[in-house]
Amino acid sequence: MLHKGAEVIxxxxxILVLLFMAHNxxxxxxxxxxxxxxxxxxxxxxxxxxxxxxxxxxxxxxxIVLSADGIPVVLHDxxxxxxxxxxxxxxxxxxxxxxxxALDFQLAELRQLRLHERSTHDAQGRKVAVYPGRxxxxxxxxxIPTLAEEIDLIAGLDRSTGRRTGLYIELKAPGMHRxxxxxxxxxxxxxxxxxxxxxxxxxVYLQCFDAATLRRLRFEHKTALPLIQLxxxxxxxxxxxxxxxxxxxxxxxxxxxxxxxxxxxWLKQIYLGKDASGRAQLSELVAQxxxxxxxxxxxxxxxxxLPQDVESFDELLDIIIRQAGVxxxxxxxxxxxxxxxxx
Length: 343
Ligand code: CA
Prior knowledge:
Layout: H1 2-23, E1 30-33, H2 46-54, E2 59-66, E3 72-74, H3 86-89, H4 107-110, E4 119-121, E5 127-129, H5 147-161, E6 166-171, H6 174-179, H7 184-194, E7 204-208, H8 211-219, E8 227-231, H9 244-247, H10 250-259, E9 262-265, E10 271-274, E11 280-282, H11 285-291, E12 295-296, H12 313-323, E13 328-331, H13 334-342
Parallel strand pairs: 1-2, 1-13, 2-6, 6-7, 7-8, 8-9, 9-12
Antiparallel strand pairs: 2-3, 4-5, 10-11
Helix pairs in contact: 2-5
Bound molecules: calcium ion.
């Protein structure tokens, strides 16, 4: 009962905060550390999260998948081989498609894996770093954290530094998990309740590519936490029947506003390139989302992966922050964005 009361109070409170932000045009966008300070340390290691915290990120991102025993762990892919040493430690555990699914491993097995910098395979089939200028592609002592462990780390750092840092949690592939018998939304909300974050709408965002999952979070689970509809491209073949072309129309954005507080679009859905005179061309998406009352938090701004015709990270930040006017952004380099916002 107490919990229900808190929900009733906190969602209107959050809307008041949003209204305040909407009327305060000079409000700085929030800096969301994408998979931690992933420009410097292997993504989703607790080390990368501690570094992002020290760099002054407002929110730290958690991508969530489940272990075979239903424990939420912080890992971007539903697969293990691109960011861990699973092929060495558990040879033979791949599915017929050659991929190692986190969902096929008990938590005790996932704990035996060691994280490494994100990798891919080159034309010769060798494992190579996706971002060659980052942390070396080598063995590390870093392991896959559970969501609960990561929340403990962030809460602990908040306490020892006197800061207040937010969680920005993505539910990955809810359809695949549901087919395996798991309700990700219920499982993640249970951890947040246990850790005292379920009633902190100013300190937690929940994000998902799947509209149906967000609707369930809002209307079935009645969460008080703000929800962000991620927007991809239909051509990416995400495991969802969400139609991103439709979501990006004014009518689609009005539908999103029924269940979510904001959108998380792909950078290239906002910045379209330059015209003949060298001026940045922006889509209508940010203005249309704001007109629908939605926040806009695009992904992903990387110093070492600029759009083709953008000359520097500062120029990209000028375009996305000053010209497009977003409310927050996902970045692998929270320190650089923080420095930009201070000058
Ligand atoms: Ca994510």
